[in-house]
Amino acid sequence: MIPEDAAVQGADQMPGPITRADRLLAPLEDAANFVAAFFIFMLMLLGVAQIVLRSIFDYPLLGYIDMVELSMAGMAFLGAAYTQRMGAHIRMELVVGSLRGRSLWLAEIIGTLVGLVIVAILIKFSWDHFLRAYQIGDTTIDAELPVWPSKLVVPVAFGLWFLRLLLQLAGQISLFIDPFRRPEGIILARDAAETARDEAHDMLDRESTPRKDI
Q1: Which among 121, 157, 164, 174 would be 20 to 30 A from 22, CA to CA?
Q2: Could you give the angle at the alpha carbon of 65 between the alpha carbons of 62 and 151, nearest 5°?
Q3: How much is the pLDDT for 207?
Q4: Are 25 and 160 in contact (CB under 8 A)?
Q5: Residue 15 pLDDT exceeds 90
């Protein structure tokens, strides 16, 4: 956890290079996440169209399975960098949650370095798969739709994720050097009690908000 004095000491500081880079990267992550949500929405419409056409008109949608297959990459990976930025990913904090100060940021640095290595490997191999599919003109089996756009989504999404991890690594290193400086480019760890308390407050706020009759 960050010492409480860190936010006070950094309140009057100008945005550093990490914050400026974060502001440049965030719109790209938001756009990628929006595209992933759009894929999910279109898949829902596609499923409704498939059911209506098959049940009422006995005319199934041509290439439905192929389109579902091609959309999976966007739905699965385009929101990864956004999720990393928001801290909405699943973390195992049984050990990290008990650390403080430089020991905490050292553990975070090690975890982020491991993540960077893994994501870099995934970028390399997913790019190779995209090039292979593009060069041989690979298509789906049923409707023979080209698969290279779907495979290109994977290294692009992982590239954004890699940049986000780099920003977090820079922020963690700066806090390892000076634990009292203003946090930049990172998500502050929160324990289970804080999360449960905030969720309870949100639920109470929703229940206490008066509803307008329709």
Answers
A1: 121
A2: 115
A3: 67
A4: yes
A5: no
Q: Which two tokens stand for residue 153?
A: 């989504």
Confidence of residue 9 (pLDDT cuts 50, 70, 90): very low
**Cβ neighbourhood burial of 139 (10 Å; 0-12, 13-18, 19+):** middle
**Residues 139 and 147: beta-carbon distance below 8 Å:** yes
Distance between CA atoms of 211 and 202, rounded to whole angstroms?
Answer: 16
- Under 8 Å CB-to-CB from 9, ≥6 apart: which residues? 180, 181, 182
Please say if the pLDDT value at position 24 is more than 60.
Answer: yes
* pLDDT single digits (tens) 95-110: 776 777 788 888 889 9
First-to-last alpha carbon distance for the chain, in angstroms, is 46
Nearest Cα to Cα of residue 78 among 147, 159, 157, 158:
157
> 3-state class of 213 per DSSP?
coil
Task: Say what the pLDDT of residue 118 is.
Answer: 96
